[in-house]
Write a structure and sequence with these properties.
Length: 498
């Protein structure tokens, strides 16, 4: 049963059913989305490339797409529209740096001979993320990047256009054979189709895309009350994920920096991730081709905020296979662990906590390098913004303890296990705490910083000198491991090289 067949009947009893149905849709979605989005981060439903011109609603849309565990973002293109393509790419890069997703490639779209719109100055003033990010010497050109991303990718992809269709059209013109890899194109545009900003920015690219045998789905906002107001921000603020918190903070800053001004932040492009993850709350307009999807008018704005907050919150829980929820009740843990449990989960997240706990149990003791391995593996997943079982790994930690214990933490945190053939231990070099991670042919080498490695080595040597290899030594090492578990932030203890 589609949303369209539900809402178009003229029979009175069907209309009454429809009213009841529309009331319970958000409740059903909020109940069902948790197992859906929490369970598929290893094998997501949607594989997307995003094109954005960096308007304020694009910020919310891109952040929501990054947050959803059921969506894998393969790359993001900065395009001209609200901002220049270069400015859009910079905004995206700063956002990825803020979330530590630097492994998602950013491309530069084609410049257009057009004047930027009047709202460009406001959009340009909004900080997307970490303004101290290291700006690349140059961005890879959009067509080249999209070709590289899709070169050997095994899944069909969804192209998401939050601005004009310029770069998607350029890519498909240059690579006509790639059309078979595209499952669909989702595009945001206004209801008044040909007067929409995204259409008018590049009409010719729309005409080309429309001529292709690729499904084109247009998402639009035809309601005047869909606004990111104070109540909406409060919903985001209570969602509990870094993504929701970041959006709430940014919108608070916008309000504080514009005292006394009425700032209308209408929902627009941020409806796209909601359409992708919950199409049942949208209906298509029969009078337009291609089909234009709008949010059902009977759904209250508060429920829309709930739905978006739920998607933003989907990143919080780990990818469980046996547990419905991973145990975090301090009463279930030994005293020396339960004392710091709340603080460590708050500081480093539940995914890292889960992986360290499981590694300690499997490893047979609470070890230093096994915990370092977990933190490194979680950082690699974060870097590429992927779930478990998606990375190929080459470890240089060797096969001799204590350094080789790093390998256990890597396997548990990333799912790149010996049994799945996703990890190799290189034996040709002097062992060191360094690992190469590969996703979709892109490599990153992560190595423990020299000063941290030297600190660990000194601490271990001190224990050997004091206790030999006695039981007291192992108790000493375990206390050190607890200390490192609590103190070492995965975002500051590793060096990256390419």
């Amino acid at each position: 049963m589609t949303a369209r067949t539900i809402y178009t009947s003229k029979k009175p009893w069907v209309k009454r059913f429809n009213k009841l149905f529309i009331r319970i849709i958000p409740v059903l979605f909020l109940t069902l989305i948790a197992p859906l989005v929490y369970s598929h981060s290893g094998k997501p439903k949607y594989h997307v490339i995003i094109d954005t011109d960096a308007s304020i609603d694009d910020l919310r849309a891109v952040t929501t797409l990054l947050a959803c565990n059921d969506i894998r973002v393969l790359g993001i293109i900065g395009s001209q529209g609200t901002l220049s393509a270069k400015s859009a790419a910079d905004k995206v890069s700063s956002l990825l740096a803020y979330f530590h997703h630097e492994g998602i490639p950013v491309g530069l779209g084609r410049s257009l001979d057009q004047i930027l719109p009047f709202w460009s100055a406001f959009a340009g003033s909004v900080s997307w993320g970490n303004n101290e990010f290291i700006e690349p010497a140059s961005y890879q050109e959009a067509v080249s990047l999209m070709t590289e991303i899709t070169k050997s990718y095994p899944q069909k992809i969804t192209l998401i256009a939050l601005g004009a269709l310029t770069n998607l059209a350029d890519w498909l013109r240059n690579n006509p054979g790639k059309a078979q890899m595209v499952e669909r194109i989702i595009w945001y545009n206004e209801i008044d189709f040909k007067n929409g900003f995204n259409y008018q920015t590049d009409p010719d690219s729309y005409k080309f895309i429309h001529s292709l045998p690729i499904p084109l789905q247009v998402v639009s906002n035809d309601r005047s009350n869909l606004v990111c107001d104070q109540a909406f921000i409060q919903k985001l603020d209570s969602a509990g994920s870094i993504y929701a918190n970041h959006l709430a903070d940014i919108h608070k800053q916008i309000t504080e920096s514009n005292p006394g001004k009425q700032i209308h932040l209408e929902l627009g492009d941020d409806l796209v991730p909601l359409f992708l993850t919950c199409p049942i709350v949208f209906t298509s307009r029969d009078d337009q081709h291609p089909a234009v999807f709008t949010l059902e008018k009977n759904i209250p704005v508060s429920y829309v905020a709930d739905l978006i907050s739920t998607v933003l919150n989907s990143s919080v829980k780990p990818n469980n296979r046996v547990f419905t929820d991973f145990p975090v009740n301090p009463d279930l843990y030994k005293k020396n662990v339960s004392d710091f449990l709340p603080r460590v989960i708050r500081d480093f997240g539940l995914s890292e906590w889960k992986s360290v706990v499981l590694t300690n149990e499997i490893h047979g003791h609470t070890g230093i390098y096994s915990i370092i391995g977990v933190k490194m593996g979680v950082r690699a997943l974060e870097y590429f913004n992927v779930g478990v079982n998606n990375l190929e790994v080459v470890s240089y930690a060797g096969s001799e303890p204590p350094l080789s214990c790093l390998n256990d933490g890597i396997q548990i945190s990333t799912g790149a296990t010996i049994g799945q053939g996703l990890i190799k231990v290189d034996k040709t070099v002097l062992p060191n705490p360094a690992v190469i991670f590969v996703f979709n042919s892109k490599k990153i080498r992560i190595e423990l910083k020299k000063e941290i490695a030297e600190r660990i080595e000194a601490d271990i040597s001190k224990g050997v000198q004091q206790f030999g290899m006695s039981d007291k030594y192992w108790a000493y090492v375990e206390e050190l491991a607890y200390q490192y578990w609590q103190e070492l932030d995965r975002h500051f203890i590793f060096n990256f090289s390419f």
